[in-house]
Amino acid sequence: GYRWLGGWMFVVNIGILCYYSVVLGWCVYYFFYTMAHELPTSHEDSRDIFIDMTESGYPALIHFGCVVIVAFIISRSVKTLEKANLIVVPTFLVIVLVSFIYAVTLSYADEGLTYLFSPQWSQFGEPRLWVDAIIQNAFDTGAGWGLFLVYSIYMPQKNGAIKMAMGIPIVNNVVSLISSVTTMSTVFHIQIEKQGFDPRTNLSAIVEILKDNGEANTGLTFVWMPALYGQMDGGRALAIVFFFCLVFAGLSSMIAMMELAIRSVEDFGLPRKFSLPAVAAFVFFGGLASSLNTTVLVNQDFVWSFGLLISGGALLFMVFKSREMGHYRNRCVGLMAGAERFRTSIINRIGFNSGDWKLYLPWSIFVTFVCPIELIGMFGWWIADQVTSDKIVWYEFQAESLIAALTQWIFWLIIIVIFHNVLPHRKRGQGYEQLSGSPDRSKPPSPVTTIDSPSRTGKTGNADVAVTVENSRPVESTPLVTSGRMSTLKPNTLADEQVPEQANEHLATDL
């Protein structure tokens, strides 16, 4: 009855993926541009380079190339990218740190830091500020995307969910803070030192320039980072490596997002050899308009970034419904039943035995009472602000209007409901022939791996599971990227042992 929530998360993921590929294409363009041209040293020159790029046909061409490359990597399980990322990701962090140190030593960098860390308290009363902040964190860390719901069938127990959930946001926010300091220091140095702006009399002009980086400020990184490296001796080499690392990081993330979409399509019974090209084609055509017009890209970013809030609500609902799963359903009572069952019986009981950290009672309290209020309150506040705002008419179709988001959300929800009620779903113990209703008796049954619940089996390793493999066949490994690092995926059980080599690729977990 609730599969449509998973369908919503799939739609949000692929909606973001369509324009994410376009932004990745911008990184590819700048990688080659910095190799072939001198770097700009002023905001005007750097902005013109970005505008010229977005108004050309290059983004569409490179968008196509990115989709093809990612589809090829997924189909062939290319391991070279994994090995390269072991070098590229640390190199990227080093470059970010070097850029940060150089930027804060520039003249008038202190003016930029003063502006950055001087809050305007009135802005805390604007809901868009809070919603943008939570969406930015969700976008950066992958929260609400549903990636790990799909990849849980591949990940060994040693990949502790709690450790990653704590570590990734901390590292992400530290890097984000470093990047903001770097940008502000660069902006104020260039505008005061090079352009002669007086921060005491022209502060508002400098702030306006911060907003003049393409439509909806989409080009902030692409305008100011080349301008920063243009101030440095040897900066061009750093710029080349910087955008090269961005390309690899973007490819890694795009692989993970496309793999989720492919697996979701497979769950409707479409074989992988068809689902992969189908998803790739959808991503290309879905992102084509964004590659040709940045207004469309801004709209898609607005619609599906805010859609992550709804995905977060779907995940909260999943935690609440866990009280009804398996033979534990009668052991938990009260408002915190779902969160407590999820915490004690799923996370602590399985994860802690494999070396992960434990979750404690305050987590259940926070998830049960604070998160729903925060989510509903913030979303409702944002809608009310959209309706009453003087800056934009909510019922007119504009790039960032409420009606534009609601229309697309409703359209895709209708599609999801139709798919949910009309098309078959792969269920535990079913192969594609069973789903289609017309089994081919000339072929053996589709291989299915079932993981039975503890109420029916004994113990295997550290978890109460049992694996039954019928008519098994070798599994094709597929690529996965977690936290910027790609790995070759191999299906696993919840136990320490890997699934036998002849295991089936379709796994179902009965909690």
Distance between the termini: 17 Å
Largest sheet: 3 strands, mixed
Strand residue percentage: under 5%
- Spans with pLDDT under 50 lasting ≥5 residues? 326-330, 428-511
Mean pLDDT comes to 79
Which strands sit side by side, in order, in the main sheet?
2-1-5
Which structural class matches the secondary elements?
Answer: mainly alpha
How many separate helices? 17
Radius of gyration: 25 Å
What portion of residues is helical? 55-70%
What would the principal axes of the Cα set say about the shape?
A: globular
SSE order: HHHHHHHHHHHHHHHHHEEEEE
Verbal overview:
This protein has 511 residues and is mainly alpha-helical. The protein has 17 helices and 5 strands. The chain has a 3-stranded mixed beta sheet, with no helix packed on it. Strand 3 (479-482) and strand 4 form a beta hairpin. Helix 1 packs across helix 3 and helix 12 (272-292) crosses helix 13 (294-321). The longest helix has 34 residues, at 3-36. It is globular. The two termini are 17 Å apart.
